[in-house]
Amino acid sequence: MSATTGGEADRAQSEIIGIVLLTAVVVLLSVLVGGVILDSIETDEKPVANLDVSIDGNGTTVIAHDGGDRLPKSEVSVVFRSGTSGGQPLSNYTQRRGDTDVIFEPGEVVSGGTPDGETIGVLIVHDPSNAVLYDGLVDVAGNATGNKAPTARMTVTPSVATAGQRVTFDASGSSDPDGSITDYEWDLDGDGIYEHRGVVVDRAFSQAGGRTVRLRVFDERAATATTTESLTVTPASISVTSATLSDDGDGIVVPGDPLTAAVTIETTGIVIDSVTADGSAFGAGTVELTDGDGDGTYDGSVTVGSDSVAGDQGMTVTIRSVDGNTTTVETDELAVDLSPPIVTDTSLADGDRDGFVTTDDQVTVTATVSDDVAGVDTVQADAGSFDAGTVELTDGDGDGTYDGTFSVGGTPEEGAQAVSITATDRVGRGATESTESLIVDTTAPEITTFSVEDESEFWLFGFTEQYQIQWETTDDNLGATTVYVNRSEEVQESYTGSEGDETYENARLFEVSGREHTITIVAVDEAGNRACRSVTDTADGSDPPSSAYASC
Length: 552
Hints:
The chain is mainly beta. It contains 2 helices and 47 strands. It has a 5-stranded mixed beta sheet with strand order 12-18-17-14-15, with no helix packed on it. A 5-stranded antiparallel beta sheet has the order 43-42-45-46-47, with no helix packed on it. Strands 1-2-8-6 form a 4-stranded antiparallel beta sheet. The longest helix is centred in the first third of the chain and has 27 residues. The protein starts with 5 loop residues before the first helix and ends with a strand.
């Protein structure tokens, strides 16, 4: 057996003493809870709470949390050490003051049943830590007379108020005969909910009529008292007969056009201190309105700012009396226009929609135009490059699509041409968009070469009518070249190229001489411009003279 050092002996002695003390605490708690054995003792994180327990005149146990830690109700047990009834968890108690949540925190009061008996032993324990939060005796018989209820009193100033006037409610006359009042609660709107706290509270009522005001006071042991007073609110003696905004007459304003705000006010026994208008929607801040000639009309001018709010906007006018009462009124509205019209879906189309036009061709212009604030005033197309001037576009069915037509004039500009469409709203703001282009071509193709060689000849059984035809045309937009031979302009051959060399042959049996033939060449460009030359010749083997060629 080894020797024990002094330190080890001290440590062993401390451990023995600790075990003895721990055992004593367990035994003590077992006695306190009347036979309820607590499972274990945790020495860490034990809560501290100042709890006050009383039994009111109705025989109800009242537990008040006067300070300390917040306690989950599910972790707190209330055990009665005398009487015939057992205890219950704190979560079963009814909330009397404070939030109806699961936490018991400073300032809250709960209540619950009380067992039979004249003197009740109450033990309140924090279950997880086995901490004893309260241990005491409560005298039931003595409590009924030992804690006297407080008295609630209030004054209302003024007892008759005008709408908008501030009323003061004062509970400082309340008292408690055997203690002090700890809380003052007010129901100012008569809905049964005490939503205001304080010895003195103020409130202004915007609507006229009767009011019932309630005051409830608490003493330090949660005893209560209530009282009520009536308040009459009369209509305000300030009336506004008109509140207007005015501009240049069209009801629409833009940044930089001035407007005027005006209100006409009638008062009875009240002196007006100031009249202001909130011009923030117009980018103007607060506007002071004045009554220059004393006729009751207050007005002021404001310049619409660049940070205005688009759309229909008005002002809130605030009328303040010298005693601090205020009345507000809304003016009528003006439309704030911050944007020009929106022009979309522009188009330019010729009749056959091939993209080419020439003099007298009909052209249609179309655009979708909108302006949600000011509205569209005019929509015009500049067709000057088509020698058609200005074209008015209209929206016949109100669907927002504007259209118009024009005829290409005699001296348009050649080549790709567009029109610009300008929409103007009712305050003069404009927006312009261009259409796609059409090709303007008023110049007919040129037939630079047209020759016919007569190669007709006799043979054993008849005669052969034969011509060799050559041609050449020039046109940047050439569509087709057509050659006709003796067919009353029924198409003999059609060519899309600019030149050709073809032979026309017709055999006539048992004929000894040729007939007269007319050979025609027609060139047409994409815009429909036409060039034509023709020659008439007898099929006899001799070429037609140059004098036989002519335009057609």
